[in-house]
Amino acid sequence: MKPLGVGLIGTGYMGKCHALAWNAVASVFGDVARPRLVHLAERDAALAAERAQAFGFAKSTGDWRAVIADPEVDVISVTTPNAFHAEMAIAALEAGKHVWCEKPMAPKLADAERMLAAARASGRVAIIGYNYIQNPVIRHMARLIREGAIGTLTQVRVEMDEDFMADPADAFSLKSEASSGYGALDDFAVHPLSLLKVLVGDVEAVIADMGKPYADRPTADGGRRAVENHDMASILMRMAGGVPGVMVVNRAAFGRKGRIAVQIYGSAGAILYDQERMNEFQLYQHAGRAEERGFRTVLTAPHHAPYDRFVPAPGHGLGFNELKIIECRELHAAIAGQPFTALTFEDGIRIERTVHAMAESHVERRWIDVG
After folding, report:
1. Which pLDDT tens digit goes with each residue over 43-95?
2. N or C terminus: fewer CB in 10 A for the chain?
3. What does DSSP assign to residue 175?
4. Contact, 230 vs 255, CB < 8 A?
5. Angle between helical axes of 190-199 and 136-146 (0-180°, round to 10)
């Protein structure tokens, strides 16, 4: 496959992650051609030029449409705020570009459905940025579950907590606006849902309750503005095959930084994982003498592929950006028509529908089937 021409729209936190991945993927994996970093867009031309210089892109612009129209660009990274994902991804697909879009697909389900329709009509690859599923730990946990290492699944529990919205004195921001979505559900609950999708399967039905710890927040002019979405949610779930599940998410949880705690119980054991300790998991298997039974910690090592592409020794650990590099390699595989593990728009729409079912359940106070 010839080198991909890359266009990047948005250069904030996730834009930089994508740029790092595009720069590193050929060096790390050695089986893909080095991408050509062609064109970068930001909200104004001066900032775009600055970021293009820092990230290694040949051209820059203050108009994202110019990146999509560039004939040298084969694939577009969309890393802008959620509200802009649909318009940009659809425009890119209609222009015949492949798309790597950050999660979630869009705040409105109708827009996410339009994104899926555009991907289907284009015949191009369109994936969602769920890089946590690329962790070698998660891949191995999924293998253990498929192989029956903990028996028949009996219950799933997952919690996601961060504290970037915990301080009531922090100013009102875009994340508290209704235009950005429901809040904790589509801001980051989509991540544990992506993990559940690859470990257990789809969510089939939900009943949810959302909450907001603070009714309003201070504004820059000294006033107050009402918080328009919810920073926490508690959900009961029915998973594929009837497995019961529980999910709790909170972006106002003091002391938590990047916690996604997954507990999967089966008829012959259990698996535990915490994203804050992302290079290990705990495995319990109900076998052997009772005197020696207990959880054991498994550290990532070169035999947990593709850890070996980064580090030649066990226990040294990978990080968030390394998972993004793995995801970039999976995107290359998808474009080349090879087997891949990234979640496409086809996969992502199920997560979107699950989030919207949760929000609907909160309003209607009843179980909702995920359509």
Report:
1. 999 999 999 999 999 999 999 999 999 999 999 999 999 999 999 999 999 99
2. C
3. G
4. no
5. 40
